[in-house]
Amino acid sequence: MNTPTLITSLVMAALLALLIAFFIRQMMRGWLHRAQRQAELIGTLPPLPDTVGPAIVPPTKGLYVGTTLVPHWNDKVAVGDLGFRAKAVLTRYPEGIMVQRTGAGPIWIPDESIVAVRTERAIAGKALTHDGILVIRWRLPSGVEIDTGFRADVRAELNRWLEENA
């Protein structure tokens, strides 16, 4: 390889690396801007209860898909760690629903905040060919309604959640 070709290749590689870095920076800025815009809407999440009764629906293992703002199934919440996927265990108690996530904090959904429990084909970041995502619509203390998505490892287990909330 001659010197002018080598220099041209190195310059092009450097420009490509700068372009990629620029796009990654812009995506991160967009995510942070979204989080700042949503922080006031979301407010604080309900605190975890000190004690709970016996489980109404036993623990269901699966994937916490994420949380979105109602009514937009693709407007993912970026506040805190609500926007990140994680392995999770979902359990229903008389007082509410506990979402225990691996690598992220638990989410407590008080029973009086639950608006609806249903299955959907899609929620931001996850789309299926069948109704396999359990979506829990609930109202935050700030008054904003959000949808929390969960995909069970065993799809048949979602029927218990739907029967309990029918």
From TrEMBL:
Domain of life: Bacteria
Domain PH: 42-164
Pfam families tied to this protein: bPH_11
Keyword annotations of the record: Membrane, Transmembrane, Transmembrane helix
InterPro entries for the chain: PH_bac (IPR057446)
Spans traversing the lipid bilayer: 6-24
Protein name: Transporter
Record organism: Mycolicibacterium goodii
